[in-house]
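Next comes this protein.

***
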Amino acid sequence: MATPNAERRTPNAERRTPNAQRPTPVFGLSPEWLLEDGSPLATATVLSHPEQVERLRTSCPEVVPTAVLAGDPCFDRILAALPQRDRFRRALGVGPGQRLIVVSSTWATRSLFGGGAEAGGTGGAAAGGADTDDVLPWLLSSLATELPADEYRITAVLHPNIWHGHGPGQVRAWLDTARRAGLEAIPPLDGWRQALIAADCVLGDHSSVTYYAASIGRPVLLGAFPQEDLDPLSPVAALGRTAPLLVRGESLRAQIDRAIQCHERNRYKELAEQASSSPGESAALLRRLFYDLMGASEPEGRSALLDPLPLPPYLPAHRTVPVRVLTRTVTTDPPEVGVVRHCVAGDEPDPYESLTHEDDSVHTVVDEETRESGRLRIADIVVRHAAHDDPRLGPAGAWTSEALAWYPHCGLAAYIDGPDRCVVGTRTGELVRLSAAAGPDGRPDLCDPAAYASALYAWIVSGRTLEQAAPVLTVRTGSTAHRVTIERVRTPSA
């Protein structure tokens, strides 16, 4: 079955030898993919839009009599799930004021994962005049370190053939630094549709995933796009001529923000119309075709239905690389602290090497599960994620006391036992719970509670007291304000 993506093919497709007398083969619609000894391979060639029939008429006319228009079940499932966007965002741990960025790549040689277009081609990074043999590592490293942790959430959607061809272990190794900095690698078969629906921007290439994102109105930024590999008449090729290109060397954050801010709702309206000529009808059309091929009658009184997209499990970002935190006391009455957090991955320079405001202060937060265990000895704050009743670590008071004893440089230990709360212990023996106020709908604030611990730490080291911050400390991340309640916790010895 052909899709709007002219790149979709089987793993063996690249090893077939095109007919030298024909033009460059159109993946999925050319004789090399559709004919066997000059005859159609399939009894029915399912297409999603009449424009594919027209291209098929040019590329492989022998197969046109087998063409059947039956919509796109994948696209139909996405359309049906659009109302669940907010739920999908919460499942990915996207908090208030955060932007979800989805990095998507197909598996071809000149895909985003494969290295992008060759220098001088039409790939997005190549358009900037830079070597593109390490586009994805550069992109993931930049996403992990350049974007403030509380203002952006990053996920990656990689083609199943990338996982299959290289093996899950190798792919995870390539993504390791970014994953430890909070990147979520979406499983190759499930969850990617929900991520697209939830996305604020998709960084992609010539994959069907990127095309689907554009078709449902999501802002798209192309990191690689080899036009020469595509049928110029295909909708995917049209996307490459329409969407903005990522330029290496320019601020990644500025380009993402610009793609979002300058996006027009109907920018890809024509492309969306070519995704399927029968939106919402593919199940019925395909069932009718299948029963016709069997020479049987369809079941009476039973509608043809597609499985709905399931709600993914809750997957908040878990950052185990060191995090550098810039804080600024905005006001003391009422108490308010601004927090900006950046992950420090590998040998990346300190993002706050020079401060420009006298009220700015910087500290380091390290997760106790970090691979870089040496950093725990010099961390200002040590954090741990665990259930409040975890028998290995809890209760919170026991762990914070233990952590403060183990890490003598640490000024505050934070035990994160919920999506919107944590218990922190100080060097002066105080133990308090920080809890963010729920949203207007009663649902929890999904900002990382470690940001609240950083705000309280900055408040204390500035010479102010807990009493001056209580009962409510406002913590500002980007343009979002979080009202955090401070409550003392009674310990068994108290």
Q: What stands out?
A: The chain is about 30% helix and 20% strand. The chain has a mean pLDDT of 88. The longest strand covers residues 323-332.
